[in-house]
Amino acid sequence: MTGLELELVRLTKKFPGFTLGPLDLKVEDEILVMVGLTGSGKTTVLNLISGIIRPDNGSVILDGSEITHLTIESRKVGYSFQTPFLFPHLNVYENIIFGLKKRDEQAKKIYVKKLLDDMEISHLCNRKIQGLSGGEMQKVSLVRMLAVEPKIILMDEPLAHLDIPTRRKLRIEFRRVLRRYGVPVIYVTHLEDEVYSLADSVAILSHGKIENKGKLEAIVSSHSSHFVSEIFVGANYIEGKVIESKDGITIIEVGSDLVETLGDYSTGSRIGLLLRPEDVFLSKDAVKTSARNVIRAQVIKLVRQVSLTDVYLQTDYLHLRAKITEKARNDLGIKMGDQIYAMFKAISPQIVREDS
Amino acid sequence: MKDRNLTKNTPGRLKRSRFDMIFLVLAGAMVAYVSYPIVNIFTLLKPTTFLESMVRSEVANAFILSLITATISTLLVAIFGIPLAYFLARIHFKGKFLVRLIVIVPLVLPPLASGALLLGIFGPHSMLGKAFPLEFTQSVLGVIIAQTYVASPFMILASQASFESVDESYEKVARILGKNRLETFLHVTLPLAKTGILVGFIMAWVRSVGELGATMMMAYNPHTISIQVFEDNAVGGLSNALPTILLVIVLSMIALAIFYILRKEEALKPIW
């Protein structure tokens, strides 16, 4: 299932005190993460696409056909909410086959088994909903949604209610499954790390309007507006290809730069790392320390914030931000255009993304 | 020992004891007030009289008539009342408040007044009475009309509360998964609200069995079990009516036991 495309044309919805749109957006076979602060209209966009609410103006076009006036059930849309809303009177298997039509029982069983295997939850097949953990419920909910073969998938912060380790794990699994499924996905969140974990593209929604849209790297590095920097205030995002992985140490290639991190990953796969600016050390000279990553970069921007300074660095392929005290900057004498060394330990980055 | 004295003398402990005692006495008095008349039946009732009453054909007929008419009335209330309850729970429309008030009218009206109102519509000299060649009064149909009217709020209110307790998001999910509104209602809303609806069904049925005032106005004959109790008491005094009363009590207790079992199941349901 490839080549599907969703298009929103001048989509508008007015509420008392808030207007969404007019919104123009095109989503191809990719995961588009829609980011915005609370009240920016993210969920409204999903509700308009799914038909839960009707627009005042504009069109929703899916796979070349206008679906603006179709009923919810005839749109072939998959929608995952913050709460999984698995039907409590049905078990896991019955939940998954709920939306399936015209398949004989044996075919249904084989089909469901394949989906459950793919999500690695076959063992839950005959379990009651009441006994599942939050993470398991979201996985079952995703399988139930995929079972009806939707033409587009909408996800409204489905991991919001989960604990942080489960969320981290599920983000990577969700991306793996969703990329394999190959339909347009709109994933709504206000969390920066979910953007890095899942996005091919990012759309920034602010006060009911799309402020910016583009590929992940372009959006993150642009910091084009106050709002974008408000969302992406945190970590450095580094994505690269695994060229070596053994004994729990992985080396990734980012252009001509090499970055070491912990973990075992398949050679050739791409992984994404988050690195906190506080974990980046700076030096004028190449000094020998326990840090496994030493990168020579140019200072391209200095932003002073009270007693701290953000130092923006750039190599041919890497963009890094380091946070140091103003006193440290003065002591080192760091100025715009300087060539300096950025260092961080292999243990510092957090893996947020894995694409085989 | 020292600890126990300390606990006893704390003001909180003292207050709680007084509170418990007062409430225990009041609650006990209430239970005694409700249960004593029932227990008292066994002191008044002679086994021979009971057996004699049980073999009286009019008691058996009244008993059977009540079972049948109450069941039909409850089914009628369910057929018309459940969709109404769903509308009241889910749909926002002008005049909803008024409809909600109308629904509870049979609950707050004295049953005799309800019966009188029904007579005005279904009586032999009414428009409907003249228009249809049917015996609306003094007939089984009259009993059913009266019971349906009086029992309707129990079914509607219980079902409405039950529908309101079902998160609408389940219905949205079902629609997104490809089910139309009717399929969503049958496969999701109804199963999730079923316990509350069954409770309403039982309450409406018990109310129909026990109905007297409206039924007397609409159809004194044929006798339902409640009218039989009334007549036995009028003709032969309390001792004559006691066996039939006991029969009604047993029947109601069975229905209430089912009601409580369902309520317990409902309480055990997971909350989402």
* Termini separation of chain B: 47 Å
Supply the number of structural domains of chain B: 2
Total number of β-strand segments of chain B?
A: 0
CATH superfamily of the largest domain in chain B: MetI-like
Q: How would you write the strand order of the largest sheet of chain A? A: 6-7-8-3-9-10
Estimate the mean pLDDT confidence of chain A: 87
Overall CATH architecture of the largest domain in chain A: 3-Layer(aba) Sandwich
Q: Strand share of the residues of chain B?
A: under 5%
Largest sheet of chain B: none
Largest sheet of chain A: 6 strands, mixed
Radius of gyration of chain B: 24 Å
How would you explain this protein's 3D organization?
- The complex is a heterodimer of chains A (356) and B (272).
- Chain A is 25% helix and 37% strand.
- Chain A folds into two domains: 228 residues, 3-Layer(aba) Sandwich (Rossmann fold); 119 residues, RNA polymerase II/Efflux pump adaptor protein, barrel-sandwich hybrid domain (OB fold (Dihydrolipoamide Acetyltransferase, E2P)), CATH 2.40.50.100.
- Chain A has 356 residues and is an alpha+beta fold.
- Chain A is globular.
- Chain A contains nine helices and 20 strands.
- Chain B is mostly helical and 272 residues long.
- Chain B folds into two domains: 44 residues; 219 residues, MetI-like (MetI-like fold).
- The N terminus of chain B is likely disordered.
- The chains are: A alpha+beta (356), B mainly alpha (272).
- Chains A and B meet through strand 6 of A and helix 10 and helix 11 of B.
